[in-house]
């Protein structure tokens, strides 16, 4: 089990309440609920049923707010962010493969 102080470094730890999360990204709780309805972010729930957000989720919500503020409909903003996130992951995997000469770590290239 991880030590409590390690949670401060965990981007996925649900540390922020809805009110604090909304304040941090400069939005309203209703905006965060709308992102949940659009399935961009799914906050974890506390034992009492309150929504809790992680830093990763807040980065996505902040990006959504930027796009919406520029006039992008919320559904389109969410789709854009999902695609951006998928592209970032694909680029990361590609870089890892290039760093290991195109072979997954721990495997050897096929014999000629």
UniProtKB/TrEMBL annotation:
Residues 15-83 form the HTH merR-type domain. Gene3D superfamilies: 1.10.1660.10. The keyword Nucleotide-binding does not apply. Keywords: DNA-binding. The keyword DNA-binding applies. GO terms for biological process: regulation of DNA-templated transcription. It comes from the Bacteria. SMART domains: HTH_MERR (SM00422). GO terms for molecular function: DNA binding. InterPro entries: DNA-bd_dom_put_sf (IPR009061), MerR-type_HTH_dom (IPR000551). This is DNA-binding transcriptional MerR regulator. It comes from Nocardiopsis algeriensis.
């Amino acid at each position: 089990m991880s030590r409590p102080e390690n949670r401060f470094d965990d981007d996925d730890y649900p540390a922020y309440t809805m009110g604090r999360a909304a304040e941090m990204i400069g939005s309203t709780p209703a905006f965060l609920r709308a992102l949940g309805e659009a399935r961009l972010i799914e906050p974890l729930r506390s034992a009492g049923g309150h929504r809790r957000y992680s830093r990763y989720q807040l980065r996505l919500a902040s990006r959504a707010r930027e796009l919406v503020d520029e006039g992008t409909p919320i559904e389109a903003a969410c789709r854009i962010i999902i695609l951006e996130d998928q592209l970032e992951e694909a680029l990361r995997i590609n870089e890892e493969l290039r760093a290991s000469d195109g072979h997954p770590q721990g495997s050897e290239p096929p014999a000629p």
